[in-house]
Amino acid sequence: MNAAKRLHGAGQSLWLDNITRELVASGKLASYIADAAVTGLTSNPSIFDKAISGGKDYDAQAEELARRGLDAEAIFFAMAIDDLRAAAALFKPVWDASNGRDGWVSLEVSPRLAYDAERSVAQAIALQAQAAVPNLFIKIPGTAEGLWAIEELTFRGLSVNVTLLFSNDQYLAACGAYQNGLERRVAAGLDLQVPSVASLFVSRWDRATAGKLPVDLQDELGIAVAKQTYRSHREVLGSARWKALEARGARPQRLLFASTGTKESTKPDTYYVEALAAPDTIDTIPQATLDAFVDHGKLGALLRADGGNADEIIARVAAAGIDVSVLAATLQSAGAAAFVESWNHLLQSIESKVAAHTGYAR
């Protein structure tokens, strides 16, 4: 049994952090489901930018959709939803067998809406209706404005993957928004079967602090923040507020570890995956990291519910001159800006493809 299957057996879900048309059509995704216990998939603007801009798999469809009068953004969502529908069909048996706990795919609203709650809600509802599959999460950034969108969409019964969370405080705010939405459903006499996940980005902490910390603290901050957040996650599930919702049928908002590919060449290529093994959580894992983990990964001790040495590491980082709360806000805003950059490049690429094939620019 390879390490991925052992990790699944320990209670952590592995979701692939990638999608391309070729990945689905070639049978590669199906093989990951069968051989590496992959039980879900996530996407983001950067992933789709690479998929669509980097080859010709989407050219014919982009041309056809342009001839129907669609603009670049509508063309993108139509193509992305086609890919995600195909992936969702592969994961549907997992979704059915797990009663909706696993087997999800994710689509993000336009990153230009990261600070526009009302338009985020409107686009999320439209995308969910357009996709028309039950196992699709709509990704909403956990910005201050996004929190209201998360609450509102939860109240309306849409399943949300909260993205771009970087700190324990940001996670708790997103968790609170989810519970607010559920409590509004209680007041309205609605059922509480509205799954959600909260995605904590890990490795970007270590990239941001590279060369700014003592050697023994290098590449330790991201894992420490993840440990601290896992402790909060366990505490939330034990709280009276959550127990009241759970008694009415609510499902826990699952904690998802994102950005778990190794960026530093001096660390093992499975560094974050091995460090963040934890039951009842999700690791959304880049494809190259998944291949490495299947090939030579190791499963060691699971994360401790009390956070282990997280507080000590974060205190030492602070003593070394890093303001962790300020950096968390910076990472979130920088992450949102990076997705906008990918989004703009993606739309420009679609427009260029359309112009090249049709002889006119939209």
What features would you describe in this structure?
By secondary structure, the protein is of the alpha/beta class. The chain has one domain (3-358): TIM Barrel. It is built from 16 helices and eight strands. The chain has an eight-stranded parallel sheet with strand order 2-1-8-7-6-5-4-3. Strand 5, helix 9 and strand 6 form a beta-alpha-beta unit. The mean pLDDT is 96.
Please outline what is shown here.
This protein has 16 helices and 8 strands. The protein is α/β, with parallel strands linked by helices.
What descriptive keywords fit this protein?
single chain, 362 residues, alpha/beta, TIM Barrel, eight-stranded parallel sheet, 16 helices, 11% strand
Please tell me what the overall shape is. globular
Parts with pLDDT < 50 across at least 5 consecutive residues: none
| CATH architectural group | Alpha-Beta Barrel
Spatial extent as radius of gyration: 20 Å
| Integer count of domains | 1
Topology:
Blueprint: H1 3-9, E1 13-16, H2 21-25, H3 28-35, E2 38-41, H4 45-53, H5 59-67, H6 72-97, E3 105-108, H7 117-131, E4 136-141, H8 144-155, E5 160-165, H9 168-187, E6 196-201, H10 203-208, H11 221-237, H12 240-247, E7 254-258, H13 271-275, E8 282-285, H14 287-296, H15 310-319, H16 324-358
Parallel strand pairs: 1-2, 1-8, 3-4, 4-5, 5-6, 6-7, 7-8
Helix pairs in contact: 4-16, 5-6, 5-16, 6-16, 7-8, 8-9, 9-11, 11-15
